[in-house]
């Protein structure tokens, strides 16, 4: 669909509120469960059913506004395909079972796998649990099972940002806040499309731009909605972020637009960085990126001469070449110019899922709670003592989902528990992924059935979702907010928190999880967070509701929270991080400047596969559509997969608008409709990744983008590089 038409339809829906005509008899305070902008809202409830939502006018993030996903969020709760009963596989089919039988079998299989050692167990989950659920799951995995195989789908979107922050600043954590966007002279959107992915943040940016004349630079190979309205669009070639960023630094230094005093006092690594940057004059970067040297110079001058700059970044960085390194280069821009820790200036990663930040904070995946480093024996001991478990049980070398797949292949990993995520659509190189899901003993815990990954499940557990449980979420600006339970989950669906407690009890560790509610689990986590960079010990559920969320660190009842980190120029760079990052060992509190060389991507277009393939998201859908395809008002806007193709390429191949085409890469093929538009340059394709292959009730289509993608990971963050692959296009009749 044409962008203008899409916007018109979306505006119409938004203006008409997206709500039912029912008048609620109760409004329940909550937070949006989709993206990590983290809009505040109320769920309208009538007779025990959610019938509408409305934006919270007092919430500082969104001031009452919601995007189309948020407006219709209530519709995800009572859908007829909500999973209501546990199932176990019998004679090749999933059949309804009692909760007792399903959980009993699960714990029996877990215990059998444990005989081979904790590494035989893998857990792969989501960015959509409550903070308290991540904490409970981390404790169960590391403190009870002792498995190093705990990862989540945040590996696919934010892992590079995490590692980039750690390498530059010593710990994870976005330094800035949304208020910086209101104050910035320049907003540099690097590898991000906030107009579609973070709509309420985009509204805020556009509003302040109209008031203050904020300049907007967008670096993106694709002409997104954000790029279309920008003052400068740097349409660089896929995979060339590093060359562009090095060259921007080259110009900043050449033009004397750096801050020598800040560099001297607050950073290390300048000389090493300089040795690399010297090789990237704009003329050379122009050859690599396809941009003009003038455009690179102009962008650098705009950045360097402005009083304040926020750099927003997302998957165009995190899922591209040298992902974690690229984050450190974005951090370099801000460190070299002293544009960090001051109002209107910061690098700011935009998180995709509502609570992915919470996962990072409490050790729901590889790290330990409170940004503790599992490679650090002192940190492992602290956590073990706090939990009352032997320190040897706490894993020191966490593994990621791609490593877990390798371990299924070798037979080392025997039991995989997948929760709130859909790897049979979302992981790269689907043919391999599906074979491996089929091989392992698989437990799937989700809110809907059917869903693609459940096809391979041996046990299925129905779970409660957003709106059906009480707990906290942290958004992209470190703001912790509360969402209260509004309605009961359907049938035998239980909150993930309760399922973790139940599994722990059956494993004989119930006393470690004997919290009467999530609030007591939050209190336990708060104690563990004390004196850590993400200290939440001053927060309470009441405060979070009364004060519209609180930004960590917040260490006492009268602490108003912390909008910006590093305001004193001191970073979290103690020697503890050196164990994970060998080159980095200082006690000075200085940030680290990194020198990074550009590398050619592992796969580039050639004669056989002549197109660059770029996968990404569109505003109507969320992840693998498990929720949004069940909202008719969203699905009608984008109900099946498509590929954006440049008009000149389409004309050369005789492809017309809406024609079904086959895309083929070295990994597999799909068939989707061609959408012919100038959003992509010649020789490039854009393919939304939301669509799977199994769509009951619709035509069966093989349209999952990840049949084509490369299962190659960033060496530092282990994040798959979805933005770089090559493929070919064929007319269906010509196949
Ligand atoms: Fe929800 Fe994000 Fe939309 Fe806000 S912008 S309503 S958090 S999906």
Q: What is the helical fraction, as a range of percent?
A: 25-40%
Main sheet strand line-up = 5-4-16-15-14-6-7
Task: Write down the domain tally.
Answer: 4
Number of strands: 26
Radius of gyration, in angstroms, nearest whole number? 24 Å
Distance between the termini: 26 Å
- Spans of at least 5 consecutive residues whose pLDDT stays below 50 are 581-585
Q: Which structural class is indicated by helix and strand composition?
A: alpha/beta
Percent of residues in beta strands? 15-25%
**Nearest-integer average pLDDT:** 94
Major beta sheet summary:
7 strands, mixed
- Overall outline: globular
How would you summarize what this structure contains?
The chain has 735 residues and is of the alpha/beta class. The protein has 4 domains: 3-76, Single Sheet (N-terminal domain of TfIIb), CATH 2.20.25; 87-153 and 354-551, Rossmann fold (3-Layer(aba) Sandwich), CATH 3.40.50; 159-350 and 586-592, Dimethylsulfoxide Reductase, domain 2, CATH 3.40.228; 611-731, Barwin-like endoglucanases (Beta Barrel).
Question: Can you tell me about this structure?
Answer:
Helices cover 32% and strands 17% of the residues. It is an alpha/beta fold and 735 residues long. The chain has 26 helices and 26 strands. A seven-stranded mixed beta sheet has the order 5-4-16-15-14-6-7, with helices on both faces. Strands 21-25-22-24-23-26 form a six-stranded mixed beta barrel. Strands 10-9-8-12-13 form a five-stranded parallel beta sheet. The chain folds into four domains: 3-76, ADC-like domains (N-terminal domain of TfIIb); 87-153 and 354-551, Rossmann fold (3-Layer(aba) Sandwich), CATH 3.40.50; 159-350 and 586-592, Dimethylsulfoxide Reductase, domain 2, CATH 3.40.228; 611-731, Barwin-like endoglucanases. The model is unreliable at 581-585 (pLDDT under 50). It binds iron/sulfur cluster (SF4). Iron/sulfur cluster binds next to α2 and α8.
């Amino acid at each position: 669909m044409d962008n203008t038409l899409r916007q018109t339809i979306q505006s119409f829906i938004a203006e008409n509120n997206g709500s039912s005509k029912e008048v609620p008899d109760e409004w329940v305070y909550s937070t949006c469960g989709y993206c990590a902008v983290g809009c505040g809202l109320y769920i309208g409830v009538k007779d025990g059913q959610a019938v509408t939502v409305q934006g919270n006018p007092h919430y500082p993030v969104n001031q009452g506004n919601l995007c189309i996903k948020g407006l219709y969020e209530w519709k995800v709760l009572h859908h007829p395909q909500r999973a209501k009963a546990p199932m176990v596989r019998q004679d090749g089919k999933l059949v309804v079972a009692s909760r007792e039988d399903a959980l009993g079998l699960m714990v029996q299989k877990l215990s059998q796998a444990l005989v081979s050692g904790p590494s035989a167990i893998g857990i792969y989950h989501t960015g959509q649990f409550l903070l308290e659920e991540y904490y409970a799951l981390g404790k169960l995995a590391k403190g009870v099972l002792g498995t190093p195989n705990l990862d989540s789908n945040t590996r696919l979107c934010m892992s590079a940002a995490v590692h980039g922050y750690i390498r530059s600043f010593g710990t994870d954590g976005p330094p800035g806040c949304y208020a910086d966007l209101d104050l910035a002279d320049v907003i540099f959107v690097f590898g991000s499309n906030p107009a579609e992915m973070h709509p309420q943040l985009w509204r805020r940016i556009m509003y302040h731009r109209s008031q203050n004349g904020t300049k907007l630079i967008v670096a993106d190979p694709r002409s997104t909605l954000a790029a279309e309205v920008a003052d400068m669009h740097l349409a660089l070639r896929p995979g060339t972020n590093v060359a562009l960023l090095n060259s921007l630094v080259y110009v900043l230094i050449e033009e004397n637009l750096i801050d020598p005093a800040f560099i001297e006092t607050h950073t290390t690594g300048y000389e090493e960085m300089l040795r690399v940057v010297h090789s990237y004059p704009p003329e050379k970067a122009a050859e690599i990126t396809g941009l003009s040297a003038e455009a690179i110079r102009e962008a650098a001058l705009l950045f360097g001469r402005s009083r304040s700059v926020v750099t927003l970044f997302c998957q165009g960085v995190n899922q591209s070449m040298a992902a974690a390194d690229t984050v450190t280069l974005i951090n370099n821009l801000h460190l070299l110019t002293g544009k960090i820790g001051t109002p209107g200036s910061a690098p700011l990663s935009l998180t995709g899922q509502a609570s992915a930040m919470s996962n990072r904070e409490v050790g729901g995946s590889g790290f330990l709670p409170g940004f503790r480093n599992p490679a650090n024996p002192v940190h492992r001991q602290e956590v073990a003592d706090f939990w009352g478990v032997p320190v040897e049980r706490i894993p020191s070398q966490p593994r990621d989902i791609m490593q877990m797949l390798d371990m299924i292949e070798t037979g080392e990993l025997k039991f995989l528990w997948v929760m709130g995520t859909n790897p049979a659509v979302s992981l790269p190189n689907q043919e391999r992924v599906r074979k491996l899901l089929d091989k392992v003993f698989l437990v799937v815990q989700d809110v809907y059935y059917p869903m693609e990954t459940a096809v391979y499940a041996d046990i299925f557990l129905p779970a409660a979702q957003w709106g059906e449980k009480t707990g906290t979420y942290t958004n992209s600006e470190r703001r912790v907010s509360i969402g209260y339970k509004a309605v009961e989950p359907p049938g035998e669906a239980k909150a993930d928190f309760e399922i973790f407690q139940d599994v722990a009890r059956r494993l004989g560790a119930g006393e470690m999880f004997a919290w009467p509610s999530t609030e007591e689990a939050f209190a336990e986590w708060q104690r563990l967070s004390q004196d850590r960079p993400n200290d939440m010990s001053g927060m309470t559920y009441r405060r979070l509701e009364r004060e519209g969320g609180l930004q960590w660190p917040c260490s006492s009842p009268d602490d108003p929270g912390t909008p910006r980190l590093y305001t004193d120029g001191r970073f979290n760079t103690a020697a503890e991080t050196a164990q994970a990052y060998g080159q980095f060992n200082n006690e000075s509190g200085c940030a680290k400047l990194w020198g990074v060389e550009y590398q050619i991507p592992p796969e580039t277009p050639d004669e056989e596969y002549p197109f660059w393939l770029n996968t990404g998201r569109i505003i109507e859908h969320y992840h693998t559509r498990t929720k949004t395809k069940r909202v008719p008002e969203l699905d009608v806007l984008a109900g099946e997969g498509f590929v954006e193709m440049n008009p000149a390429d389409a004309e050369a191949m005789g492809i017309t608008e809406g024609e079904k085409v086959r895309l083929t890469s070295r990994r597999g093929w799909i068939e989707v409709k061609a959408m012919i538009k100038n959003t992509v340059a010649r020789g490039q394709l854009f393919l939304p990744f939301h669509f799977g292959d199994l769509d009951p009730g619709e035509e069966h289509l093989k349209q999952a983008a990840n049949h084509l993608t490369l299962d190659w990971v960033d060496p530092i963050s282990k994040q798959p590089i979805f933005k770089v692959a090559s493929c070919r296009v064929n007319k269906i009749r010509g196949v």
